[in-house]
Amino acid sequence: MSGISARLRLQRPDFLLDVDLHLPGQGVTALFGPSGCGKTTCLRAMAGLEQATGRVEVNGEPWQDSATKLWLPTHKRQLGYVFQEASLFAHLNVRQNMEYGLRRLQPGRRRVSLDQAVELLGLGALLARMPHTLSGGERQRVAIARALASSPRLLLMDEPLAALDAARKAEVLPYLERLQRSLDIPMLYVSHSPDEVARLASQLVLLQAGRVAAQGPTAELMARLDLPLSHGDTAAALVQGQVLGHDARDHLLSVAFSGGQLHLVATHPRTVGESVRLRVLARDVSLARTRAADSSILNLLPARITQLAQDSPGQVLVALDSAGTPLLARITQRSC
Length: 336
Description:
Elements lengths: L3 E9 L2 E9 L4 E5 L6 H9 L5 E6 L2 E5 L4 E2 L7 E4 L11 H7 L13 H7 L15 H14 L4 E5 L7 H17 L4 E5 L2 H7 L2 E6 L2 E7 H5 L13 E12 L4 E6 L2 E6 L9 E7 L22 E9 L2 E8 L2 E8 L4
Parallel strand pairs: 3-9, 3-10, 7-8, 8-9
Antiparallel strand pairs: 1-2, 1-4, 4-5, 5-6, 10-11, 12-13, 12-15, 13-14, 16-17, 17-18
């Protein structure tokens, strides 16, 4: 049976986690919400690091069930866990740190080889290096590879980029995207960054005060005006498209999607036919009642207004439908 289900309840003196999750058995699902909403607690409970009551099942394998008193300790749950800090063994080099993840796994149960983890995370030139000689991004890539080396049935990531600066985040994100495309291992990714969620997650769980506010496809939830993710300066919609071509002279990438074509500045060409995911910020979308002429704007798309919502004093969010693709625009009250 494919899929991940977790019905968990954990009472603390000042906090209650009470969630019922039904997640796909592949791809990346993001746990998103403000600090203190229960993201990390939920992840730790699924790993067995917190004694929550309820049931956890991963692709047909039960890990705990309070009704039958089933409880697998963390070391018997076939999972990988990546924390905010890499926490590498300082006395071991990169290869030895990764090999540590193989120790409790019989050769016949290995689904991810060490060589595959090295290739996916670009670690070939670092294998003999010691942790203290690595950058923050390199250390975190090693930590992810170490978790993959245990061939987990579920990979848990607790804000793995939170401790990195913008440059190091930009370094690691493409490798996480590669893992998403290349591995058939479901990932549960905790984040409070809308950009990370938009780039990585196909499914999204919004948590508020220990409870699930919404769960479903990321593109759908990001465009819902009744949810907090669609409000504020980072409000955006996701567009799934396909590369049509690259104009090397003007450095423009052409992408087709259900609503038409988009032209994007891109210094590196992409493969024609390649599937791409675009994040379109609501603050970058303007509206016109008629098609604009003599404008510097390249991307002119027909769309239908489906909903309006107040965003902040003087600003309004507009939900749009562009031939089946949801978009958002953030405009002034006067413009509205």
